[in-house]
Amino acid sequence: MQVLLVDDSKTMRMLVQRAIRQAGFSGFTFIEAENGADALNKLAAHQPQLILSDWNMPEMSGIDFLRHVRSSSNATPFGFITSEGSNEIYEAAMKEGAQFLITKPFTPEDVRSSLRNVFGGIA
């Protein structure tokens, strides 16, 4: 399964990958992007089965990236992993078509729960 992982921090992208493995998910291939603009280019070249994005990034934010994805009728499951955890942020994410929002700091259990809600009992 290909996962498009979008975060301006290389360290955070590595932490998310580790949390996914620790959550019991295997067989994932990660495509990394540094921001929403970079992610749009990667999305054009790949067909991921999941998109995980930060909210605050330079050049294009995660919510703007999500809006671009959904405006092109792309229904790929999309989740946020972000330090933004307010009700307003959560509601905006869900309104634009995100399936979940995980707040940093997060645990492998947080990741497991969110991904199981999207994919069922695959881990």
Please render the helix and strand layout as text.
Layout: E1 2-6, H1 10-22, E2 29-33, H2 36-45, E3 50-53, H3 62-71, E4 78-82, H4 87-95, E5 100-103, H5 108-119
Helix pairs in contact: 1-5, 2-3
Quick overview of this protein structure:
This protein is 44% helix and 19% strand.
What this model shows, in words?
This protein has helices at residues 10-22, 36-45, 62-71, 87-95, 108-119; strands at 2-6, 29-33, 50-53, 78-82, 100-103. The chain is α/β, with parallel strands linked by helices and 123 residues long. The chain has one domain (2-119): 3-Layer(aba) Sandwich (Rossmann fold). Helix 1 crosses helix 5 (108-119) and helix 2 (36-45) runs parallel beside helix 3 (62-71). The chain is globular.
Q: Please provide the ordered H/E string of secondary-structure elements.
A: EHEHEHEHEH
Main sheet?
5 strands, parallel
Percent in helix = 40-55%
The CATH topology, please?
Rossmann fold
Rounded to the nearest angstrom, the radius of gyration is 13 Å
Give a count of the beta strands, DSSP E runs of length 2 or more: 5
| Mean model confidence by pLDDT | 94
Identify the CATH homologous superfamily.
Response regulator
Terminal CA distance reads 13 Å
| Text of the CATH class | Alpha Beta
- What is the general shape? globular
Question: Which structural class fits the helix and strand makeup?
Answer: alpha/beta
Strand content: 15-25%
Model regions low in confidence, pLDDT < 50 over at least 5 residues: none
Number of helices: 5
Number of separate domains = 1
